[in-house]
# Entry
Amino acid sequence: MRGKLRTCLHSASDGVRWQYAEVPHDLQHTMANNTFGHAFRVTTFGESHGPGVGCVIDGCPPGMPLDRAAIAAFLARRRPGQSKLVTPRDEEDAPEFLSGLDTETGQTLGTPIAILVRNQDQRSGSYSEWWHTYRPSHADFGYDAKYGIRAWQGGGRSSARETVGRVAAGAVAEQVLTSRFPGIRICAWVERVHHVDGRSIIDPLTVTRDQVDAHPTRCPHPATAAAMETAILDAKKNGDSLGGYIRLIVHGLPPGLGEPVFDKLDALLAQAFLSLPACKGIEVGSGFSGAELSGLEHNDHYAWHNGVMTTDTNRSGGVQGGISNGMPLDLRLVFKPTATVLKPQASADDAGNNVELQAKGRHDPCVLPRAVPIVEAMTALVLVDCWLRQRGQVGDPWPGLLGPLRKEGQ
# Structure
């Protein structure tokens, strides 16, 4: 019904009764927000226990050879069942490319790229005994409060299963980005799990993806990784879960990306990361510790080196005024403990009763190891979108790529 919103009045044994409410005209086409980006636009689709999940990418430049094996490898880094530290849900997560690629050369056509990943190991029965009960710190009540209906099997789109589409799109974005800027290197890793903290031990500027992926915790420091593994397995044994920090460094980012007011580069990254399940905060550069310094102590001093602008410190985290300055992008993300724990908890149901919930099912005792490639994917999506917007507005190359604006003696 055009201009009307169907809402649930009551769910009873004799069926569901609905009422229709007027929807303001200016909201009729803006209510759903499953699309991210401006020039490089990504729409994700699918529910955790539905037939499949995936994405549609609009705005990918044409004529670019796309390495589909690399996309599959990126997806494999976030897939469930890869170690004893994550959910045992057994998904192959093999991408199917439905459109947007030339069938002979594999090059992008410039048309929408649709990627599908089929779900294979759903077990909705694990949720059937308590689907009327709201799981503590989950999105169940929020979805009911907003829509009057929800996909209770596995949490629907509030599940981290939704991020499959983000990772597939991010893998494409990274290839587009590095085809123009070969020196860009996006690297995230687990820096802390609960009380096990590697911040003082890990040199953030030397970490590589190979080092990160060498251990199932995705911590690049072997001794710290072993301590994290023990902490996660202990929590899992006790039916509990743990949170922590992910650190992100982007090397080789050119200056000039990001818009100066509402679409600042750090603001776009914050939106991207806070849209991830379980992410509760970010720091850019010095972050909250910057409040402990004075201005004289905190400022990053500029210096030209061989025609390239640098700063002697990087407390700004590579972003000043919302625009990249050519220094490494440096962020820290905070992830809360997984909300599903396997011990009885007080909760409430959708009939107005306060009840006790004993959750079941397969869940990550710590989301951090599998969140690392998701963080890298969202970073690539933000950066490729910023580059394409910059290219469209100013051209490429733009002033920041050409060295000093004023020649000596002018």
User: Anything to note?
Assistant: Residues 1-31 form one domain. The chain has two domains: 1-31, 32-401. The longest strand covers residues 4-12.
